[in-house]
Amino acid sequence: MVTMIIKRLIQLIFLLIGITFIVFMAMHIAPGDPASIIGGPTATQSDILAIHHRLGLDKPIIIQYLDYLNGILHGDLGFSFQTNRSVAQEIWTRLPNTIDLAIASMIVAIIIGVPAGIISALKQNSWLDFSSTTLSLAGISIPNFWLGALLILVFAVNLQWLPVGGLDTPFWTFKGFKEILLPAITLGTGSAAMIARMSRSSMLEIIRADFVRTARAKGVKEHMVIWVHCLRNALIPVVTVIGLNFGGLLGGTIITEQVFAINGVGRLMVESIASRDFPMVQGGVLLIAFIFVIVNLVVDIVYALIDPRISYQ
């Protein structure tokens, strides 16, 4: 296990270097000049050239990348073109809201998805099974921005039960729970649908296994067969989906944060892309990629905890 973790961390270093190169080149190739945006419509050509020189944009692109990479190796993500503040400081300020939203959305997805999948498997071809399958298909198909706008219209505007947007307090407080409920449902619905489908198919496969028939033949109570023998063995592919979806939720917060006016990393990324704030976009993508890889590493470790037969030697 320790050897596997060390190998994955070494791979993480090369992966992040590759991501920085792709994002850096993509941002510099994309149309738009950050110096023109900073200077505004009244900026002269000499003003724009001066801004280019101040930001280091007049250097060859490969030199700019090497300077950026050198800064990362020294723990410096650079400074925002727009605010002139440290990129790490800007991201750190907004990161808690994004993490809260991702965690709350995953909690919603697990609470809805796992029980729905188990019930569908146990009641195969019943009306509960067909209802769960239909709702799962709808959950995957409905776009986040549409669902978010619909929930705001119904629960915030018409019924006035929940706030329209914003996230000012931690989600485990009552006020924070009310603020994050609609965004979490919006973001977690698609993940809940995928978790439900995976839980159902995995449970159906395990229920028909020989060891389950043997447990029932030995007189083990049905609820013990389901919760001890079936569920634990069915959890491995479900954990995979949960891990991958949690990483995806961090990227998916971009749209949801815009809809609900949440000051998170996703919204910061949208604003930075619009203003061609290269260092901020690169820092945000680097952070999301790092968290995604770490989450997948944690998932691999959880595999071994769920099923000791799994070996990474």
UniProtKB/TrEMBL annotation:
<dbReference type="InterPro" id="IPR045621">
    <property type="entry name" value="BPD_transp_1_N"/>
</dbReference>
<protein>
    <recommendedName>
        <fullName>Nickel import system permease protein NikB</fullName>
    </recommendedName>
</protein>
<dbReference type="Pfam" id="PF19300">
    <property type="entry name" value="BPD_transp_1_N"/>
</dbReference>
<keyword id="KW-1003">Cell membrane</keyword>
<dbReference type="InterPro" id="IPR035906">
    <property type="entry name" value="MetI-like_sf"/>
</dbReference>
<feature type="transmembrane region" description="Helical">
    <location>
        <begin position="12"/>
        <end position="30"/>
    </location>
</feature>
<keyword id="KW-1133">Transmembrane helix</keyword>
<dbReference type="GO" id="GO:0005886">
    <property type="term" value="C:plasma membrane"/>
</dbReference>
<feature type="domain" description="ABC transmembrane type-1">
    <location>
        <begin position="95"/>
        <end position="303"/>
    </location>
</feature>
<comment type="similarity">
    <text>Belongs to the binding-protein-dependent transport system permease family. OppBC subfamily.</text>
</comment>
<dbReference type="GO" id="GO:0015099">
    <property type="term" value="F:nickel cation transmembrane transporter activity"/>
</dbReference>
<dbReference type="InterPro" id="IPR000515">
    <property type="entry name" value="MetI-like"/>
</dbReference>
<feature type="transmembrane region" description="Helical">
    <location>
        <begin position="234"/>
        <end position="255"/>
    </location>
</feature>
<keyword id="KW-0533">Nickel</keyword>
<keyword id="KW-0406">Ion transport</keyword>
<feature type="transmembrane region" description="Helical">
    <location>
        <begin position="285"/>
        <end position="306"/>
    </location>
</feature>
<feature type="transmembrane region" description="Helical">
    <location>
        <begin position="101"/>
        <end position="122"/>
    </location>
</feature>
<comment type="subunit">
    <text>The complex is composed of two ATP-binding proteins (NikD and NikE), two transmembrane proteins (NikB and NikC) and a solute-binding protein (NikA).</text>
</comment>
<feature type="transmembrane region" description="Helical">
    <location>
        <begin position="134"/>
        <end position="160"/>
    </location>
</feature>
<keyword id="KW-0921">Nickel transport</keyword>
<keyword id="KW-0472">Membrane</keyword>
<dbReference type="GO" id="GO:0071916">
    <property type="term" value="F:dipeptide transmembrane transporter activity"/>
</dbReference>
<dbReference type="InterPro" id="IPR050045">
    <property type="entry name" value="Opp2B"/>
</dbReference>
<dbReference type="Pfam" id="PF00528">
    <property type="entry name" value="BPD_transp_1"/>
</dbReference>
<keyword id="KW-0812">Transmembrane</keyword>
<feature type="transmembrane region" description="Helical">
    <location>
        <begin position="180"/>
        <end position="198"/>
    </location>
</feature>
<keyword id="KW-0813">Transport</keyword>
